[in-house]
UniProtKB/TrEMBL annotation:
CDD domains: FYVE_FGD1_2_4 (cd15741), PH2_FGD1-4 (cd13236). Keywords: Cytoplasm, Cytoskeleton, Guanine-nucleotide releasing factor, Metal-binding, Phosphoprotein, Repeat, Zinc, Zinc-finger. The gene is Fgd2_1. Pfam families: FYVE (PF01363), PH (PF00169). This is FGD2 protein. SUPFAM superfamilies: FYVE/PHD zinc finger (SSF57903), PH domain-like (SSF50729).
Protein backbone atom coordinates (compact mmCIF):
# COMPACT_ATOMS: atom_id res chain seq x y z
CA UNK A 1 0.00 0.00 0.00
CA UNK A 2 2.89 2.35 0.77
CA UNK A 3 4.34 1.69 -2.68
CA UNK A 4 0.95 2.39 -4.29
CA UNK A 5 0.58 5.63 -2.33
CA UNK A 6 4.07 6.80 -3.33
CA UNK A 7 3.41 6.01 -6.99
CA UNK A 8 0.12 7.91 -7.00
CA UNK A 9 1.76 10.87 -5.27
CA UNK A 10 4.56 10.97 -7.88
CA UNK A 11 1.97 10.85 -10.64
CA UNK A 12 0.02 13.78 -9.21
CA UNK A 13 3.23 15.78 -8.66
CA UNK A 14 4.21 15.30 -12.28
CA UNK A 15 0.80 16.36 -13.57
CA UNK A 16 1.11 19.58 -11.57
CA UNK A 17 4.65 20.20 -12.78
CA UNK A 18 3.81 20.24 -16.47
CA UNK A 19 1.57 23.31 -16.01
CA UNK A 20 -1.27 22.31 -18.28
CA UNK A 21 0.66 20.10 -20.71
CA UNK A 22 -1.45 17.05 -21.44
CA UNK A 23 0.46 14.02 -20.21
CA UNK A 24 -0.17 10.32 -20.39
CA UNK A 25 -3.16 8.75 -18.70
CA UNK A 26 -2.82 6.93 -15.38
CA UNK A 27 -1.61 3.37 -15.68
CA UNK A 28 -3.89 0.48 -14.83
CA UNK A 29 -3.14 -1.49 -11.72
CA UNK A 30 -1.60 -4.87 -12.42
CA UNK A 31 -4.72 -6.76 -11.40
CA UNK A 32 -6.77 -4.68 -13.87
CA UNK A 33 -4.73 -5.61 -16.95
CA UNK A 34 -6.98 -7.30 -19.48
CA UNK A 35 -10.07 -6.68 -17.37
CA UNK A 36 -10.42 -2.95 -18.05
CA UNK A 37 -9.79 -1.06 -21.27
CA UNK A 38 -6.75 1.19 -20.79
CA UNK A 39 -6.49 4.85 -21.71
CA UNK A 40 -3.91 5.09 -24.46
CA UNK A 41 -0.81 7.25 -24.09
CA UNK A 42 -0.96 9.82 -26.88
CA UNK A 43 1.42 9.29 -29.78
CA UNK A 44 2.76 12.84 -29.68
CA UNK A 45 3.92 12.47 -26.06
CA UNK A 46 6.61 9.91 -26.89
CA UNK A 47 9.42 9.74 -29.42
CA UNK A 48 10.59 6.22 -28.59
CA UNK A 49 9.11 2.84 -27.73
CA UNK A 50 8.03 2.82 -24.08
CA UNK A 51 9.35 -0.74 -23.69
CA UNK A 52 12.63 -1.14 -25.64
CA UNK A 53 13.43 2.63 -25.81
CA UNK A 54 14.26 2.54 -29.53
CA UNK A 55 13.31 5.78 -31.38
CA UNK A 56 10.38 5.81 -33.73
CA UNK A 57 10.57 6.80 -37.37
CA UNK A 58 7.95 6.93 -40.10
CA UNK A 59 9.33 4.11 -42.21
CA UNK A 60 10.66 1.21 -40.18
CA UNK A 61 9.41 1.79 -36.63
CA UNK A 62 5.70 2.61 -36.48
CA UNK A 63 3.84 3.38 -33.29
CA UNK A 64 1.42 0.80 -31.89
CA UNK A 65 -0.64 0.71 -28.70
CA UNK A 66 -0.69 -2.19 -26.29
CA UNK A 67 -4.38 -3.03 -25.82
CA UNK A 68 -3.75 -4.11 -22.23
CA UNK A 69 -1.72 -1.25 -20.70
CA UNK A 70 -2.13 1.50 -23.33
CA UNK A 71 1.63 2.11 -23.79
CA UNK A 72 2.99 3.30 -27.14
CA UNK A 73 5.30 0.56 -28.40
CA UNK A 74 7.10 -0.47 -31.57
CA UNK A 75 6.13 -3.38 -33.80
CA UNK A 76 8.74 -5.68 -32.26
CA UNK A 77 7.60 -5.02 -28.70
CA UNK A 78 3.91 -5.42 -29.62
CA UNK A 79 4.30 -8.61 -31.65
CA UNK A 80 2.25 -10.60 -29.12
CA UNK A 81 -1.40 -11.48 -28.72
CA UNK A 82 -3.37 -12.25 -25.59
CA UNK A 83 -7.02 -12.70 -24.68
CA UNK A 84 -8.50 -9.61 -23.02
CA UNK A 85 -11.49 -10.01 -20.76
CA UNK A 86 -12.85 -6.52 -21.46
CA UNK A 87 -13.00 -7.38 -25.19
CA UNK A 88 -14.92 -10.64 -24.83
CA UNK A 89 -11.71 -12.67 -24.41
CA UNK A 90 -10.73 -12.00 -28.01
CA UNK A 91 -7.04 -11.94 -28.99
CA UNK A 92 -5.53 -8.44 -29.04
CA UNK A 93 -2.11 -6.95 -29.74
CA UNK A 94 -0.22 -6.51 -26.47
CA UNK A 95 3.33 -5.66 -25.39
CA UNK A 96 5.79 -8.25 -24.13
CA UNK A 97 5.34 -7.43 -20.43
CA UNK A 98 1.55 -7.68 -20.61
CA UNK A 99 1.81 -10.87 -22.69
CA UNK A 100 3.92 -12.56 -20.00
CA UNK A 101 1.57 -11.39 -17.23
CA UNK A 102 -1.66 -12.34 -19.00
CA UNK A 103 -0.58 -15.69 -20.44
CA UNK A 104 2.15 -16.86 -18.07
CA UNK A 105 4.28 -17.78 -21.09
CA UNK A 106 8.03 -17.17 -20.98
CA UNK A 107 9.50 -15.03 -23.76
CA UNK A 108 12.65 -16.52 -25.37
CA UNK A 109 15.88 -14.79 -24.36
CA UNK A 110 16.66 -13.67 -27.90
CA UNK A 111 13.47 -11.58 -27.90
CA UNK A 112 14.04 -9.84 -24.59
CA UNK A 113 14.94 -6.16 -24.55
CA UNK A 114 18.31 -4.63 -23.79
CA UNK A 115 19.54 -4.01 -20.27
CA UNK A 116 18.83 -0.53 -18.93
CA UNK A 117 21.54 2.08 -19.32
CA UNK A 118 22.38 5.18 -17.30
CA UNK A 119 20.01 7.39 -19.33
CA UNK A 120 17.07 5.01 -19.09
CA UNK A 121 15.12 6.80 -16.40
CA UNK A 122 11.52 7.47 -17.40
CA UNK A 123 10.73 11.17 -17.79
CA UNK A 124 7.43 10.97 -15.91
CA UNK A 125 8.95 9.16 -12.94
CA UNK A 126 12.01 11.44 -12.76
CA UNK A 127 9.91 14.60 -13.19
CA UNK A 128 7.67 13.57 -10.30
CA UNK A 129 10.65 13.72 -7.92
CA UNK A 130 12.68 16.48 -9.54
CA UNK A 131 14.20 19.74 -8.36
CA UNK A 132 12.94 21.34 -11.55
CA UNK A 133 11.44 20.12 -14.82
CA UNK A 134 9.91 21.87 -17.82
CA UNK A 135 10.08 22.29 -21.55
CA UNK A 136 13.07 24.25 -22.86
CA UNK A 137 14.78 24.78 -26.19
CA UNK A 138 18.47 23.97 -26.58
CA UNK A 139 19.97 26.06 -29.39
CA UNK A 140 22.58 24.78 -31.82
CA UNK A 141 26.12 26.18 -31.97
CA UNK A 142 25.03 28.96 -34.33
CA UNK A 143 22.30 30.05 -31.93
CA UNK A 144 19.69 30.12 -34.69
CA UNK A 145 18.03 26.71 -34.57
CA UNK A 146 17.76 24.03 -31.97
CA UNK A 147 15.83 21.24 -30.37
CA UNK A 148 12.90 21.60 -28.00
CA UNK A 149 12.69 18.97 -25.30
CA UNK A 150 11.79 18.09 -21.73
CA UNK A 151 14.55 18.99 -19.24
CA UNK A 152 14.83 17.53 -15.73
CA UNK A 153 17.18 17.86 -12.74
CA UNK A 154 16.29 14.84 -10.52
CA UNK A 155 16.37 15.06 -6.74
CA UNK A 156 18.31 11.80 -6.51
CA UNK A 157 20.85 12.96 -9.13
CA UNK A 158 20.90 16.75 -8.64
CA UNK A 159 24.22 17.42 -10.37
CA UNK A 160 23.02 16.21 -13.77
CA UNK A 161 20.60 17.70 -16.30
CA UNK A 162 18.63 15.03 -18.19
CA UNK A 163 17.18 15.89 -21.60
CA UNK A 164 14.17 14.03 -23.01
CA UNK A 165 12.57 14.54 -26.40
CA UNK A 166 9.08 14.34 -24.83
CA UNK A 167 7.64 14.34 -21.27
CA UNK A 168 6.47 10.73 -21.41
CA UNK A 169 9.63 9.22 -22.93
CA UNK A 170 11.12 6.32 -21.01
CA UNK A 171 14.70 7.14 -21.91
CA UNK A 172 16.68 10.39 -21.91
CA UNK A 173 18.56 11.00 -25.15
CA UNK A 174 21.40 12.84 -23.44
CA UNK A 175 22.58 14.32 -20.13
CA UNK A 176 24.83 17.19 -19.06
CA UNK A 177 26.91 16.96 -15.84
CA UNK A 178 26.38 20.43 -14.34
CA UNK A 179 29.23 20.54 -11.81
CA UNK A 180 31.71 23.30 -12.59
CA UNK A 181 29.65 25.16 -15.18
CA UNK A 182 28.93 28.88 -15.03
CA UNK A 183 25.40 30.19 -15.58
CA UNK A 184 25.09 33.30 -17.75
CA UNK A 185 22.13 35.55 -18.41
CA UNK A 186 21.74 36.67 -22.02
CA UNK A 187 19.74 39.83 -22.61
CA UNK A 188 18.23 39.73 -26.09
CA UNK A 189 16.41 42.36 -28.07
CA UNK A 190 14.15 39.80 -29.71
CA UNK A 191 12.31 39.11 -26.43
CA UNK A 192 13.61 35.55 -26.20
CA UNK A 193 14.40 34.36 -22.67
CA UNK A 194 17.98 33.12 -23.16
CA UNK A 195 20.63 31.86 -20.77
CA UNK A 196 23.80 29.78 -21.02
CA UNK A 197 25.85 27.12 -19.35
CA UNK A 198 29.56 27.62 -20.00
CA UNK A 199 32.72 25.74 -19.06
CA UNK A 200 35.98 26.25 -20.92
CA UNK A 201 35.03 26.06 -24.62
CA UNK A 202 31.82 24.13 -24.01
CA UNK A 203 28.73 26.38 -24.13
CA UNK A 204 25.04 25.43 -24.07
CA UNK A 205 22.42 28.06 -24.88
CA UNK A 206 18.82 27.59 -23.68
CA UNK A 207 15.54 29.37 -24.40
CA UNK A 208 12.79 29.39 -21.75
CA UNK A 209 9.14 30.19 -22.39
CA UNK A 210 8.99 32.95 -19.78
CA UNK A 211 11.38 35.18 -17.87
CA UNK A 212 10.23 33.65 -14.56
CA UNK A 213 10.95 30.14 -15.82
CA UNK A 214 14.37 31.25 -17.05
CA UNK A 215 15.25 32.60 -13.59
CA UNK A 216 14.15 29.36 -11.95
CA UNK A 217 16.35 27.31 -14.28
CA UNK A 218 19.32 29.63 -13.80
CA UNK A 219 19.04 29.30 -10.04
CA UNK A 220 18.63 25.51 -10.14
CA UNK A 221 21.54 25.03 -12.56
CA UNK A 222 23.76 27.39 -10.56
CA UNK A 223 23.18 25.38 -7.39
CA UNK A 224 23.97 22.13 -9.16
CA UNK A 225 27.05 23.65 -10.80
CA UNK A 226 28.27 24.69 -7.35
CA UNK A 227 27.83 21.14 -6.04
CA UNK A 228 24.84 21.95 -3.81
CA UNK A 229 22.76 18.77 -3.47
CA UNK A 230 20.51 19.74 -0.55
CA UNK A 231 17.51 21.86 -1.68
CA UNK A 232 17.55 23.65 1.70
CA UNK A 233 21.28 24.41 1.65
CA UNK A 234 22.28 28.04 1.17
CA UNK A 235 24.01 28.92 -2.08
CA UNK A 236 27.51 30.31 -1.54
CA UNK A 237 28.81 30.36 -5.11
CA UNK A 238 28.59 33.62 -7.08
CA UNK A 239 26.60 33.38 -10.29
CA UNK A 240 26.77 35.57 -13.42
CA UNK A 241 23.25 36.91 -13.26
Amino acid sequence: QDAIDRKEKRSETFKTAVHGLETGPPALKTEELGRRAPQWVRDNLVTMCMRCKEPFNAIVRRRHHCRACGYVVCARCSDYKAELQYDGNRLNRVCQECYVFLTGHVVPEDREGKQKGILEKGAAEVSGRSLLCSSLQLLDKNGKGGTRGWFVIPRDDPLVLYIYAAPQDVRAHTSIPLLGYRVRDLAQGDSRHLFQLAQSRQVYTFVADTEELKRRWMKAMARSAAGITDPDEEEEEDVDF
